[in-house]
Write a structure and sequence with these properties.
Elements (H helix, E strand, L loop, with lengths): L7 H7 L3 H12 L10 E3 L6 E3 L5 E2 L14 H13 L6 H8 L3 H14 L13 H11 L11
Antiparallel strand pairs: 1-2, 2-3
The protein binds zinc ion (ZN).
The site of zinc ion (ZN) has 7 residues, from loops.
Length: 151
């Protein structure tokens, strides 16, 4: 039994909406606690978080492939799942049907995912779970200029 099995039901459960996706992006890249010891909280209606104390703001999608995309994050996450389960050999035509988006949009999403996951699945651990793959995508284009998550 494959431990990394993950389908549309799991996706809907873990990522029911854009808020859940954005929380995941934030947690993959930033600490909840600000360096001033305040806590980051979501700014309602915006793709941003703000520190409760020093008021500094973080836009977690900046520098990721989701940045400046009008496509909802749930669709991006769905596309990554389709890519994950197709083991990399997904066509833009297929994605266009799955996501009910235009061919141009599907093509753009797919080319960006391919860009940040070169050699997938060949060069990746085959026990990689879907959430791990999403984390890889999120961190891929994230340069060293930003505050890193301290583990
Ligand atoms: Zn702060």
């Amino acid at each position: 039994m494959k431990s990394s099995r993950y389908g549309i039901s799991s996706l809907r459960k873990q990522f029911p909406d854009d808020d859940a996706c954005l929380e995941f992006v934030f947690n993959a890249l930033y600490d909840r606690r600000c360096s001033c010891s305040g806590m980051f909280r979501r700014i309602p209606g915006r793709r941003q978080f703000q520190c409760s104390k020093c008021r500094s703001q973080v836009a977690p999608t900046t520098g990721t492939i989701f940045h400046k995309s009008g496509t909802p994050l749930v669709l991006w996450f769905h596309a990554i799942l389709a890519f994950f389960n197709a083991k990399g050999t997904l066509s833009a035509k297929q994605l266009e049907r799955d996501l009910e988006v235009t061919y141009k949009c599907a093509w753009r999403i797919l080319s960006l995912i391919r860009k940040v996951l070169p050699g997938f699945p060949r060069l990746y651990d085959h026990n990689l779970s879907y959430p791990d793959l999403v984390t890889t995508v999120i961190k891929a284009r994230h340069g060293g200029t930003r505050r890193r998550k301290v583990s």
